[in-house]
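Entry 12.
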Amino acid sequence: MTISSQFTIALMVITALAFLGLPMGLAMICGSILYLLLTGQDMGIVAEQFLNGMYSNYIMLAVPLFILAAEIMNSGSLSERLLKWCDAVVGRFRGGLAQVNVLQSIVFAGMSGSAVADAAGSGKMMQHMMTKDGKYTPSYAAALTAVTAVIGPVIPPSIPMVLYALVADTSIGYLFLAGVVPGLLMAGLMMVQIAVTARMRNFPVEPPTPLRKLPKMTWEALPVLFMPVVLMVGIYGGVTTPTEAAAVAAFYALVVSVIVYRSVNAREFYASLLTSAKTTATIGMLIAGALVFNYVVTVENIPRTISAILIGWNLDPVTFLIIVNVLLLILGCVLEGTTILLVIVPVLVPTAQALGIDMVHFGVVAVVNIMLGLITPPYGLLLFVMTKISGSPMRAIVADVTPFLLGLVVALGVFTFVPDVVLWLPRMFGYGG
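Predicted 3D structure (tokens):
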């Protein structure tokens, strides 16, 4: 492939359009259409790829449904009740509010499957709670909220894992199970770091909630806490498919918010639908562009070419995974996670399969990498979200994020080189990998 090849020209156009500010999905569509024109192929292929990819894959319906569930929870009082319960459980320790931030992300992860939904939803309340009366600096509160939000797409349900299942033809159910232990280990590592930092910086101790009130607060929060159980029992009990479970999640969030807590009215529900539609359209455009561009990549035989080159280097699985980690971490600094998942990961999958790497294990490693990209400067999306929410300068947030990011990179190394950490729970449920 030379610099004058049609594919290279198309790739240069995509890159130029993206740098000029055109959404990545549209940039990929424009570049792919240019490729088809240069190679003399039928323009109808674009529509064909849209239709085959977008409308024949029921897995993709899970994405807007999980987004809707998260929006309904954010518009109601579910997040607020969850925070009160978390505060009652771990708020009594030194640095308790910081520990609350981690715990609420663990529970919220079982509801939304979206890091941005976590940060933009309960993250606003955590920012206010932690910075009230100067208990924590705004930058530390924002950094911690951004870091804990990456747990969301690792612990099921997970929108990135749904997309990975789409491009790698892997079981969503086993992918969801594979994310549980890594997600909890990431959260545990954050809690240890907070405990150490709390003593070093002398973080405040919150007034403890009397233990006699804990049963009542648990009962009030039970409908919120029960949602992940409903999802997991539905999927792994064979009652629902993951897509149907997403619909159940949205319906459950609506019933709890409207009937049980009576915290969402018609106007707020409409706003949730509107926001969900906008978010879904953004992701859908990225998927559409990726589908067309992946057709171009397939026509150029790039996955097989890269696979042949890498295998020709006599790489072992461990070395390949190291290369993948470095590549995805670097790309995460400058590219949006969904783009990496839909464009870059499909190119790496054939090589991983040829080297005998388990696809569920590879999927978790890829998703964790992409999540770390959300908090990696200069273009980490969660950094921008929390800069806007907190009003803190980016450099201050990055300084407080860095220790957590280094810890998570170490955790990524464990997930990469010890596959049993990832695959233990799926094997308990019958996975043969």
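Annotation: The chain is about 75% helix and 0% strand. The CA atoms of residues 140 and 296 lie 44 Å apart.
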